[in-house]
Write a structure and sequence with these properties.
Catalyzes the NADPH-dependent reduction of N-acetyl-5-glutamyl phosphate to yield N-acetyl-L-glutamate 5-semialdehyde. With about 350 residues, the protein is α/β, with parallel strands linked by helices. The chain has helices at about 15-25, 45-50, 90-95, 110-120, 150-165, 190-195, 210-220, 255-265, 315-330, and strands at about 5-10, 30-40, 75-80, 95-100, 130, 145, 170-180, 200, 225-230, 240-245, 270, 295-300, 305-310. The strands form two sheets. Strands 8-9-7-10-13-12-11 form a seven-stranded mixed beta sheet. Strands 2-1-3-4-6-5 form a six-stranded parallel beta sheet, with helices on both faces.
């Protein structure tokens, strides 16, 4: 059997929370060769100085951050740039990379009005990006891939089985609670305001709402009427999504249990919890933070169904999902280089 050639990788925006987490994962990936780690503001500085979490890894001993203009030919670029920054850089990336995987929201929405409202700086690149969720899509055939937002993908995991099996009515309410790293390094909220607090973030008009509705429509053929509200948690990492649905006439808790079991029976990183006997059996942050696993659970009472999904926003919601996608693109096992166990306490 021929020896596996390393995948030449560039991380554009390597010093943000998502980029740094991606670097951490790729340093121990058996087939990854980190060819360029870019930062415009910190170009020329040692990687270990800007990314203290990886400074003790021998793979960064002599590595320096470089401007994106120095990008050589690579197999894949992960774009971990602020929203609106990628379109102007796409001509360079498209010329020098076989694949471009975007972790920001620039090309997630197809509706021109919604895209202009939520991502007004994202115009300027005409070739389409495919929206890719590893659990619901085969190995990607497109060169340009856009990954879901962290709260969006948690919502998809919570809701997909219910719509796929036509179990619930169209009106759905979702509340999504996220840790502070979900807002990025420039999130703007002072730690003193967040510490010891739990507050609404955006009750209406969040940009993930049209994304979730669009993705569910594409995946299941049903586009729900969605109320999507977000809240800020006093934790560094983690997302907990709660979705409230009403079962259609004749649908039962057994139908729901079968739908979740069927949807996630062969997904290495989405764990469907069985019908819980107590609250301790439901998904929790402590069960997933530090891992690339999302947990999904539910409870049904009469026609009322409440679904819960949890994940680590920087891993399963971002960098881990990106590595999972790379594994699919290059034919590796999806689990290669990704952690399955959470960090405790």
């Amino acid at each position: 059997m021929a020896e596996q050639k390393p995948v030449r990788i560039a991380v554009a925006g390597a010093t943000g929370y998502t980029g740094a987490e991606l670097v951490r994962l790729l340093l121990d990936h058996p087939y990854a060769e980190l060819t360029l780690l870019s930062s415009e503001r910190a170009a020329g500085q040692p990687v270990g100085r800007l990314l203290p979490a990886v400074r003790n890894h021998p793979g960064v001993a002599a590595a320096t951050l470089r401007p994106l203009a120095e990008l050589p030919e690579v197999d894949i670029v992960f774009a971990c740039l602020p929203g609106g920054s990628l379109p102007a850089r796409m001509p360079l990336l498209a010329e020098r990379a076989k694949y471009v995987v975007n972790l920001a929201g620039d090309f997630r929405l197809r509706d021109a009005g919604q895209a202009a409202r939520h991502y007004p700086e994202s115009a300027g690149w005409d070739e389409p990006f495919a929206y890719h969720v590893p659990e619901f899509s085969a190995a990607p055939e497109h060169r340009f891939l856009n990954l879901p937002g962290c709260m969006a993908v948690a919502s998809l995991y919570a809701l997909y089985p219910l719509l796929q099996d036509d179990l619930v009515e169209d009106r759905i309410v979702v509340d999504a609670k996220t840790g502070s790293s979900g807002g990025g390094k420039d999130g703007g909220e002072h730690p003193a305001d967040r510490f010891g607090n739990f507050r609404p973030h955006r009750l209406h008009g969040h940009r993930h709402a049209p994304e979730v509705a669009q993705a569910l429509g594409d995946l299941t053929g049903r586009t729900p009427s969605l109320q999507f509200s977000t809240f800020s948690l006093d934790v560094a990492r983690g997302i907990l999504v709660t979705a409230y649905t009403t079962l259609r006439d004749g649908r039962t808790a057994l139908d729901v249990r079968r739908a979740y079991a069927r949807a996630y029976a062969r997904t290495p990183f989405v764990a469907a919890r069985p019908s819980p006997k107590s609250a301790a059996d439901l998904p929790s942050l402590k069960s997933v933070v530090g891992s690339n696993v999302a947990e999904v659970g539910f409870q049904v009472r009469g026609s009322e169904c409440v679904s819960v999904a949890t994940l680590d926003n920087l891993l399963k919601g971002a960098a881990g999902q990106a590595v999972q996608t790379m594994n699919q693109v290059f034919g590796f096992d999806q689990a290669t280089g990704l952690p399955r166990t959470a960090v405790a306490p």
